Amino acid sequence: MKKNVILETSTSSIAQDVPLLEVKNLTLHYVTNEGTVCAVNDISLTLEKGETLGLVGETGAGKTSTALGIMGLVPNPPGKIISGSISLAGENLREKNEAFMRKVRGGRISMIFQDPMTALNPIDKVGDQIAEVIELHNKCSKAEAAKNAAKMLELVGIPGERYHEYPYQFSGGMKQRIVIAIALACNPEILIADEPTTALDVTIQAQVLEMMDGLKQKFQTAMLMITHDLGIIAETCDRVAIIYAGEIVELGNLEHIFDQTAHPYTVGLFNSLPSTAEGEQGRLSPIPGLMPDPTDLPDGCKFSPRCIYADEICKTQSRTLEQIDDTGHFCRCWKWKQLKMERRK
Amino acid sequence: MSTVESAVKETNVKRRSQWFEVWRRFKRNKLALAGLVIILLIIVLALLAPILASEGYDQQIISDSLLTPGKEGHILGTDNLGRDILVRLVWGARYTLQCGLVAVLVSAIGGCILGSLAGYYSGKVDNLIMRVMDVLLAIPGMLLAISIAATLGPGMRNAIIAVGISGMPTFARIVRSSVMSVRDMEYIEAATAINAGDMRIILKHVLPNVMAPILVQTTLSVANAIMQTASLSFLGLGVQAPIPEWGAMISSGRSYLRGYGYMVTAPGLAIMMLVFSINIFGDGLRDALDPKLKT
Amino acid sequence: MSTALLEVKKLKKFFPTPAGPLHAVDNVSFAIPKGETLGVVGESGCGKSTLGRVVLHLLENTGGKIFFEGDDITKVKKNKLRELRKQMQIIFQDPYASLDPRKTISQTIAEPLIINGGIEKSAIEERVLELMDTVGLARRLVNTYPHELDGGRRQRIGIARALALTPKFIVCDEPVSALDVSIQAQILNLMQDLQDELGLTYMFITHDLSVVRYISHKIMVMYLGQVVEMTTSKELFQNRWHPYTQALLSAVPQIDIHKKKERILLRGELTSPINPKPGCRFAARCPHAKPLCSDKNPEFIEVSCGHFVACHYVKEINNL
Hints:
The complex is a heterotrimer of chains A (345), B (295) and C (320).
Chain A lengths: L20 E12 L2 E13 L4 E5 L6 H9 L7 E10 L2 E2 L5 H7 L4 E4 L3 H4 L6 H12 L4 H14 L16 H13 L5 E5 L7 H18 L2 E6 L2 H7 L2 E6 L2 E7 H6 L4 H8 L40 H5 L5 E2 L6 E2 L14
Parallel strand pairs in A: 3-8, 3-9, 6-7, 7-8
Antiparallel strand pairs in A: 1-2, 1-4, 4-5, 9-10, 10-12, 11-12
Chain B lengths: L2 H9 L6 H10 L2 H18 L1 H4 L32 H37 L1 H16 L2 H12 L3 H28 L2 H8 L4 H12 L1 H24 L11 H8 L8 H28 L6
Chain C lengths: L3 E14 L2 E14 L3 E5 L6 H8 L7 E6 L2 E2 L5 H8 L2 E4 L13 H12 L4 H15 L15 H13 L5 E5 L7 H18 L2 E6 L2 H7 L2 E6 L2 E7 H6 L4 H9 L39 H5 L5 E4 L2 E3 L4 H5 L2
Parallel strand pairs in C: 3-8, 3-9, 6-7, 7-8
Antiparallel strand pairs in C: 1-2, 1-4, 4-5, 9-10, 10-12, 11-12
């Protein structure tokens, strides 16, 4: 496999014992007039080279905020990182200046967002938009950048001749491919994908996910896949973190989360899903209530108001994320051991 | 909305009425608040005229004519007919405000009706109405007002009609585009599905949701209307003597500009202050309404 | 046939465009028995939302026939339409756009009652509270505005509004697509309960295959304005015979991590619904396409009991 893009040496050699990305105790608040939104509360996670980590949660759980925090894209005001560190190959990004971060964004960590309709500049040719990223991160001529941009287009399944077309001439699925091409053009070490296929039809989603998987294998990119769709997680991720009210409530590999589900919220999520699998289905058992207001989070375990197993200790004391076996399965619950939870198959 | 904004927005669900929210946002803009206070003061002044200046605006004491400000208890001096300028100013507030407000009411109501019909029904109706509006807009506002006033004859009522008509196209345009953006929303479709008639939809669903731009345009138009009626009076086409509408006061004072300039500066400054206050109030109102201005 | 609450025969809806007529709904026929749910599933551009609106006369049809309780309602006068609307309602997809932001919950739910009369003014308030109870909205929320509530609650308001006139038939246009997974489950349960208690008939439009399976008795798969397959829910998920349905179902990401499944990937993108060429509209992307497919539009035929498919080679592809 030939790498077509010349990378500027902003990548230091990665030491074997340091994870590619390490987020430690990240806490992020938005200070608004309606109160302080505690969007991210003490989140820690790691990402290894070539690995895909899924971030699962519902609206308002804090997944996008975490991603923006990693990228240093949190608008300030009203957002503020209160504490925590974000280390890329051992270097703490929070200590770096804006010039360094600009080299990181697009060059070492790329992000793609949910809505392909608004992610592209409507008045620029699509090829030029890819070339722009290449030029910004590499010392190469405009012509070279254009050539590499055309190659990226081919890689994502769009004929190179369409370099000179404008975004309005493409469908939603193709626009998302172009967005992915822009994100991967400089061969970043990490790709953060925030609900990349939610706005797409299911058959187009299948095409795009397949393509992303291929590119990931080819370039060995690590990926942070943010989604609410457990099906996508099952098909694309190596490890999964379940986020609720700004905290990670369960973390583990696919077997841990899907087969040995420990946290009541995760169980509730599975029980809420109708499935297309064959066989009879019972009635859905949704989680009662709503996610708490992040300006007014409950004491104790943040899931306790909705948890059918909650008792006094749950309501008054919150648990830290603890390892519950020796294969890397973590859970934030007082009662995981005692509970025998029904899981709808 | 950016992903961040939607992340913040979706999580804020507190119990508050919409107008209360608007007022809270408005309060934070100190300049706009000052504008509002000044407008209210002028209104109060206008209302209290019979008490504060009980002698009326036409009390002529020829022996006291053309006194400079400060002489013999006349804070702002007297005019060529011996009338106290401050008294005339206070009474004049009534007429100036009246002209401004009523004229804008005419523009707004006329513009709303025409704009809603054009925006809601589209097609031929839209074409007809908007081409007429375009013709009116092609004529400079002042010129239009002058020609209408000249046709109808002098007097405050005709001045108001003239200014009202010349302001209609602006409102019609704004209402039309707002109606068009709201017309395709699902809740309008929902109203059709429950058997709501067109009139009901326009009055109860469309117009309330386009209130924000209409309100803002109204405040800004008041300032403009006051200027236009003042100008009409200045040209002799609007309010007639002895009514102390501020524009008319400037007009009658212009022959005395040399040496007795205070006859002009007092009403001039008053107009300036009123218009300025209305403008900053309108700006503040627009900013306060903006986040909710999506529909 | 005569037990069908709603029946539609060869329904068409074309939109005129400068490039030619856009075939949004083309020759669609189906019947929904009273008390059942017909799931209409397909991706963007298949015409399912347009179909829902045409059936309710929110859009006027270009051809074909619509029957409600046996009466031909294809072309209907204003008065009759007013009466009909009380029997046929709609729930919208977007809980944010389908409610008037300037009206409180009670005003929104009361409106159909006020417009259509038949109830004392004094009784309206009580009825509104009753409806709120039925859909699971706390009574204390009666004077709140939509922007103060989350998507799930807003959707409940939409459902309450649709129920206000005690309709027999409700078109549900992607009612849970905009909701979080746990809220989605709550609303789906609610809709099923309402169907059981009130004997409602639903036309449930969605792109989500797992949802449509859960809530429908019969499912209709649409592609570019035409129906490609129709059968009972159970049968469709056991035996899917149209190539598009097969691709659609295989594209849905599965939660079972141990099953590595063969995914059928479709080539290319949707062809244009404007002035479509003769022949099967799926031919351009179909992995089994043969010359006949581009020449002749396949007939919608009953391949086995109650299972209809529109494909020239359905028997060969599935070894029937």
